[in-house]
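Box S1 | Example of a co-folding query
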Amino acid sequence: MSISVVILAAGQGTRMKSTTPKVLHSISGKPMLFHAIDAAQMLCDDITVVLFHQAERIQKEIEAHYENITFHRQNVQEFPGTGGAMKGVYVKHDKVLILNGDMPLVTHESLLSLTQGDAHINMSVIKLKNPSGYGRVVIDEENVREIVEEKDCTPEQKKIQTVNAGVYCVQKELLERYIPQLNNDNAQAEYYLTDIIKMAVDEGKIVHPVYVAEEEFKGVNSKLDLAHAEEIMQTRIRNKWMKEGVTMRLPQTIYIDVQATFEGECMLENGVSIHGKSHLVNTHIKAQSVIEDSLIENSDIGPMGRIRPHSKIIGTHIGNFVEVKKSNLNGVKAGHLSYIGDATIEEGSNIGAGVITCNYDGKRKYQTIIGRNVFVGSDTQLVAPVTIEDDVMIAAGTTVNKNIKKGELAISRTPLKTIQNFFYKFFGDK
Ligand code: UD1
Ligand code: CA
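Box S1 (continued) | Returned holo structure for calcium ion
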């Protein structure tokens, strides 16, 4: 079946109280509009996004991640409202699925269910204890009669608890005829897309209500909604990976980006955050560690470790308070309190407590290369760019500011001096 999808995203989103457009607010590492686009892409090849407020910014963001999305600019001044948003939209296929850009939790299965059957229009409805804010759906027998916006409701209609969830599947032919006929003769002086329902019914068309899950279809309008939506999304992501074999201790305390992936047997302890396109294989991340956009294989990290973007860590032990950035570590031990940035470290090397790569001179970043079986003593500073060949020992407290050859010992140390009885001279006899 061929369908077209139109995503309405021209609204201002004032309730977010943000300079960032509503639909670009992120849920689990992805703008909420992208969640909707991804669900739509599983159904069809013809997606139109309707924009107005901050249109350039949103379009640029979409184009950076997707191809083949059509953009339509709503003429909001002349035709405000969801019906106005559909004016001048041209789609390829005979069936059109219309959804809001602020529904990041909607799944493609639910969208698919809205495209089934042979009614002229399928529309999503939810039963709510508190229907306030939504359009009320008047249902006769099995079929929808009309949608009345809250501001246009009679006191009697306001009591209706079946509300419009805002997703519709409509035959293109009907849209093409009804949209030009819409008027703004209502409490908000807007062009309501919802008025097409009554037009269809008046022509004897069948409008079928499809009951959908409130959790999926509730729109995000405020930062509070955003936080709730993220909680739901996180539960889905964690459940999915636990089913795939990832062990999680106190899962509710763990954050996982929608793009992160796991393989083999991984274990995440409480308070762990996994960001970006991280990929973890047979790895144990201990409590309160943060992983960003990195590949980690057969390793253990933390507790309280931080792996920053573009790191590749294989067969390695990273202990507490160790920060790694843009580095390749293979078969390494770095147990305590280190900063390893822009470095490559090879098998069998040990990084002592407090070792720091001095990778930045205030202008540029430089590389630190460490070969195999290198013992880097505690509190060593590696002033990059610097190369340490295989089988090197570096004494504790050394400042390494030149390359070290294979097999050498490097030591830079101010000789220790002692002064007898200094303590008693200073503090007096006790
Ligand atoms: C709309 C429905 C209401 C339904 C509710 C579900 C209408 C008239 N009413 O309410 O029955 O219960 O959705 O959430 O359709 N948009 C535009 N251009 C506009 C106005 C809105 O593109 O001029 C977009 C928004 O960006 C948003 C979507 O349409 O993605 C819905 O707009 P919103 O204002 O949230 O919905 P309501 O009109 O309140
Ligand atoms: Ca509105």
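The first helix runs from residue 32 to 41. The chain has two domains: 3-211, 223-410.
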